[in-house]
């Protein structure tokens, strides 16, 4: 340790900061444990480190040779365009339903304004964390199993995904509000619904609109692959072409996805900026 | 509702007219949105759904009931895939951090090597990484390096580059320039400026972001098995293929548990760092 100090004589202040910590031992132990876990992971998963670095040139090579001339004719086909529109529909509907469901859940899951901390708070938290922690593709597969193939399953999966995504952001936003109006309304005897309507909602309306738009953006990104597992939309084309190893068509579909996601991101960013200015 | 407050010269009538136009505007937006949603609803739910095949409430109830008969006998087989998932997420996050170093460097406006070439490149890479879903990344890498945990790690890494490098670049752009100038003034070279002037300022933000991303990556690596990389996703896929819905439920519960653990760990880790 003293050798480290000797090496960096030009910046003594930094060397000092290291020794100021009384917990430096714990710190080193944690770093050591993380490194050990990483080493163990590499050994356990049997990863050939040379292949990690080789993967990127290889990916580039495969993209260049097999995927290269993207089959543009395939993605300008009317059926494919229809599936793109359906993807958009699913994301809109799923995002809307998700936002609608997540607002009451976020209300329950916000610690400062929840109806009851004993029952409603854990319920709201569990609902949001539960829908967040399971990935949207797993939700899709589950809904497809129960409800059959099609956009209904995809829309519901996106709804659950949006409940988790927007619910967390909403409840974070709700927990950061100014409690003054809430207490004022409570003290004059307003019921919880009135408190929400007149004290809470006006404070978070703009932020909620921004979050809702962002949720749609993310939902659209998820909607592009929901069809991969039978949820309807353009993902189905991706699955079909991947399994038939029609790489040029896959490339075209991927380009369409990237383009659309970029458009959605730019559009949602523009809208959010506009709404942010209304604050 | 009215942000533009009425001025005295316009008077009360003008205020009312302003409010009225705002209200009409809002109603138009709501009506347009409702129409759009109604069309979406019609097209997705009514038109595309095969209600006959679903078998009514009884059929759905029957399938659901099979999901609720949890197959606990599978539990011992879950440990190794769960560990694999966790490791995949950790290694993927680590690799993602390394990959996002140059991207963040290119994409931060104040330290980028060239504003005309590298800055747009860095920004483009950030968007590219985030706009391709992890399933698609995994498919590409399964094609490139074959089955196993490696494509999952690479896919998770590629997907997390966007977020980590975006936050890092923003942190670099928002640093206090004074320490950098001070180190330059006493004759520090480019590397010393980076190491002593920039890194200490952005490190807490970056570590917080990495922990957050690790948490999300557990979620992502849990599905990598669906397209041929290992972990809990593979088990999920197998149980699904065998129509062992009770086992599927157990796998989903295991994912939930793993993510709950990850959330707790990341909560405390972030508290310790920040």
Q: For the report, how would you describe the main beta sheet of chain A?
A: none
Structural class of chain B: mainly alpha
| H and E string of chain B | HHHHHHHHHHH
- Count of the domains of chain A: 2
Number of helices of chain A: 13
How far apart are the termini of chain A?
53 Å
Stretches of chain A where pLDDT falls below 50 for ≥5 residues? 1-6
CATH class categorisation of the largest domain in chain B: Mainly Alpha
Number of domains of chain B: 2
Number of helices of chain B: 11
Average of pLDDT of chain A? 84
SSE string of chain A: HHHHHHHHHHHHH
Residue runs with pLDDT of under 50 for 5 or more positions of chain B: none
| Number of extended strands of chain B | 0
CATH class of the largest domain in chain A: Mainly Alpha
Approximately what portion of the residues of chain B adopt beta-strand conformation? under 5%
Radius of gyration of chain A: 25 Å
Describe this structure in words.
- The complex is a heterodimer of chains A (about 280) and B (about 270).
- Chain A is an all-alpha fold and about 280 residues long.
- Chain A is built from 13 helices and no strands.
- Chain B is mainly α and about 270 residues long.
- Chain B has helices spanning about 10-45, 50-55, 55-70, 80-105, 120-130, 135-145, 150-175, 175-185, 190-220, 230-240, 245-274.
- Chain B starts with 10 loop residues before the first helix and ends with a helix.
- At the A-B interface, helix 3, helix 4, helix 6, helix 7 and helix 8 of A face helix 1, helix 3, helix 4, helix 5 and helix 6 of B.
């Amino acid at each position: 340790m003293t050798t480290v100090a000797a090496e960096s004589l030009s910046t003594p202040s930094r060397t000092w900061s290291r020794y100021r910590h009384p917990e430096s031992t714990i710190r080193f132990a944690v770093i050591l444990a993380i490194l050990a876990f990483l080493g163990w992971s590499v050994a356990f998963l049997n990863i050939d480190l040379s292949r990690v670095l080789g993967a990127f040139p290889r990916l580039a090579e495969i993209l260049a040779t097999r995927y290269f001339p993207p089959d543009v004719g395939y993605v300008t086909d009317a059926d494919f365009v229809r599936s793109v529109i359906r993807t958009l529909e699913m994301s809109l509907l799923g995002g809307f339903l998700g936002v609608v469901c997540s607002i009451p859940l976020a209300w329950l899951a916000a610690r400062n304004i929840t109806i009851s901390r004993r029952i409603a708070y854990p319920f709201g938290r569990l609902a949001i964390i539960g829908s967040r922690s399971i990935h949207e593709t797993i939700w899709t597969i589950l809904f497809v199993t129960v409800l059959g193939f099609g956009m209904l399953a995809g829309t519901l999966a996106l709804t659950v995904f949006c409940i988790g995504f927007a619910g967390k952001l909403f409840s974070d936003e709700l927990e950061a509000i100014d409690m003054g109006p809430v207490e004022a309304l409570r003290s004059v005897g307003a019921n919880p619904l009135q408190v929400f309507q007149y004290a809470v909602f006006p404070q978070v309306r703009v932020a909620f609109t921004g979050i809702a738009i962002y949720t749609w953006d993310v939902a659209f990104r998820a909607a592009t692959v929901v069809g991969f597992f039978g949820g309807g939309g353009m993902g189905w084309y991706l699955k079909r072409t991947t399994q038939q190893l029609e790489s040029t068509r896959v490339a075209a579909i991927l380009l369409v996805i990237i383009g659309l996601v970029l458009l959605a991101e730019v559009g949602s960013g523009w809208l959010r900026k506009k709404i942010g200015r209304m604050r | 509702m009215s942000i533009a407050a009425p001025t005295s010269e316009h008077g009360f009538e003008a205020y009312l007219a302003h409010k009225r136009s705002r209200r009409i505007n809002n109603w138009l937006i709501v009506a347009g949105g409702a129409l759009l949603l109604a069309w979406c609803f019609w097209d997705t739910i009514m038109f595309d759904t095969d209600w006959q095949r679903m078998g009514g409430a009884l059929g759905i109830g029957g399938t659901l009931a099979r999901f609720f008969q949890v197959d606990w006998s599978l539990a011992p087989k879950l440990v190794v895939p769960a560990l694999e998932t966790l490791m995949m997420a950790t290694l993927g996050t680590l690799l993602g951090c390394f990959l996002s170093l140059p991207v963040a460097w290119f994409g931060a406006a104040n330290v980028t090597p060239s504003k005309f070439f590298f800055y747009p490149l860095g920004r483009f890479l950030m968007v590219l990484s985030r706009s391709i879903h992890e399933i698609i990344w995994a498919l590409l890498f399964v094609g490139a390096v074959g089955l196993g945990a490696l494509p999952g790690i690479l896919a998770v890494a590629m997907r997390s580059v966007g977020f980590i490098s975006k936050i890092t670049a923003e942190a670099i752009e928002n640093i206090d320039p004074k320490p950098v100038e001070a180190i330059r003034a006493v004759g520090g070279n480019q590397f010393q400026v980076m190491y002593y002037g920039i890194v200490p300022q952005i490190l807490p933000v970056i570590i917080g972001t990495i922990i957050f991303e690790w948490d999300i990556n557990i979620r992502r690596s849990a599905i990598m098995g669906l397209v041929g990389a290992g972990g809990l996703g593979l088990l999920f896929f197998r149980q699904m293929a065998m129509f062992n819905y009770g086992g599927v439920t157990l796998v989903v519960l295991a994912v939930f548990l793993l993510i709950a653990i990850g959330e707790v760990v990341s909560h405390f880790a972030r508290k310790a760092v920040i």
